[in-house]
Amino acid sequence: MTQSCTLAIDAMGGDYGPSVTVPAAAAALGRHPSLTIILVGDGARLERQIESLDPPIRARLRIRSATQVVDMDESPSQALRFKRDSSMRVAIDLVRSGEADACVSAGNTGALMATARYRLKTLPGIDRPAICTTIPCRGGRFRMLDLGANVDCTAEHLFQFAVMGSVLVEAAGDSHHPRIGLLNLGEEEIKGNDQVKHAAQLLQESDLQYVGYVEGDRMFRNVADLVVCDGFTGNVALKSSEGVAAMISQYLRDEFRRNLLTRLAGLVAMPVLRALRRRLDHRQYNGASLLGLRGVVVKSHGSADAWAFEQAIETGFVEAVEAIPSRIDARLGEIFQAEPQQ
Amino acid sequence: MTQSCTLAIDAMGGDYGPSVTVPAAAAALGRHPSLTIILVGDGARLERQIESLDPPIRARLRIRSATQVVDMDESPSQALRFKRDSSMRVAIDLVRSGEADACVSAGNTGALMATARYRLKTLPGIDRPAICTTIPCRGGRFRMLDLGANVDCTAEHLFQFAVMGSVLVEAAGDSHHPRIGLLNLGEEEIKGNDQVKHAAQLLQESDLQYVGYVEGDRMFRNVADLVVCDGFTGNVALKSSEGVAAMISQYLRDEFRRNLLTRLAGLVAMPVLRALRRRLDHRQYNGASLLGLRGVVVKSHGSADAWAFEQAIETGFVEAVEAIPSRIDARLGEIFQAEPQQ
Q1: Residue A340 located in a structural domain
Q2: Which residue in A218, A231, A247 is closest to B185 by CB distance?
Q3: Is there a single domain that holds both residue A77 and residue A210?
């Protein structure tokens, strides 16, 4: 990709702030010669932090001062009201004004979603933005949305999520005609709540490649490129999966540390365990997309290290270059033209 | 436990029928001298199957003929209408008539729930039965309900689930004063849908030990003895967890089979991998309880082998001996007397 692109980074967000965001930005600039990054936050501190960077990298780094930081436990409404000069909001406003093509933040998810929605607005035809992330599965990966932005969803919301998510899967090059599944507690048609059943009908009637209901265990068997659900269910499914993976890793460590013999076995098995750890490393999937907005906004895990945050920047870069919001807009236009839903 | 107990077993249910249920029944009889088992199903076939058993075991085995079997993909309403002499229904009716103290089946979950509800009825104060199972977590285990019987739940339903589940946890000896959590997408008070928020209020006002909202990942860190949720969310959470665990096991196998060197490492690490497999072996947790009925009904995984099915029988035995339905009934009585809810 040779297209030039400018990203705004909320440099103060997340658990570690500039000590993570600045090195990650530098690494991303090293990877993409066409990239420019605007670091938003405490100007003096950021200036000091970028001093030691190589001049060719520094040349594509700009700093925009913002005097406030949204706390990780601040409520969205408080952030909206009292943090008008936060690094998060200023970074989003750079997307709004067109100075930046995307914004990346490791800050408070609720505040990021609320601020992005308030400042950028949703695309026409989208009632609510949704959070979408990439999840590994056997022999591949899939995307899932919503992951917590929308607790209650109607069938129409779920349908909109499917449209937005499928554009993302296509643009990321994972599939030209993404297989879309609805997360449900069974695969038979009679299963599920009314919203899910009605969403299934909407998807069946559309030109999207709907593959039916997907159960929680089957989504890890590569049966769909996109799994659609309400934010409550999606959040619980994702976090349960993370919880089990962490528990198994812990078990594995415990078992190899049990005694001298198992420690020796652990040494012998080290390369295999490292390979497993790489495969399970959730950092590589860091960077959730806030879809449905008139601009690209990517959310990093708050606890991301520099390498993980770099992956979130990469997500923002790809979505900006691929102009995801315009593509979603165009796709919605096609769908509503083909079959007016309102 | 010296109390005598009679269990009715749907001998034809599950993927393997009598080839699994009969050896499992024999093993359970060997373990519990006070136990009697009634095998329900194809009389001639079951007679042949038990011929070779030791006489002291056989002496506590009875056979009850039933001419039909509920198919694994049959709808609950079809099973209710057309399978009045199914092994499942006859086994449930033995509980209804008092001939058996509990029923265990590896058959079709929907049909089992519908038949049990229709034939046994729910306890007074319980609107809907729920499915509860045991799940391993770091340093322990917890129980979760509902796992799929109730797609949509009100706050009152969730509260009833909490009462039923806490009685089960107490009776199983896991905790005298179970910590009860509500599954949610965040731990702050403002998070969640209306049902969950209202259920939190009901739990706070009760004398149950409510520990607050629990996120999907935190439930595997031993923060609650009982996690309460609607059946849609619970089913997705449980199956997602199973899917991830299966994927990681597969990864581990793949990595150890990669080449000669990793295969050798796998041999050296074998005892550790076996220990891990034992810890993750979901068969030990086989046997989900259908709570809220006027009788004990336990559902085994359809694909259970004899050892796994024996665990489900064990669950039924413990619940029968502990008289779980009466204890739930008594607990509800206390709660409604203390603070009339209607």
Answers
A1: no
A2: A231
A3: no
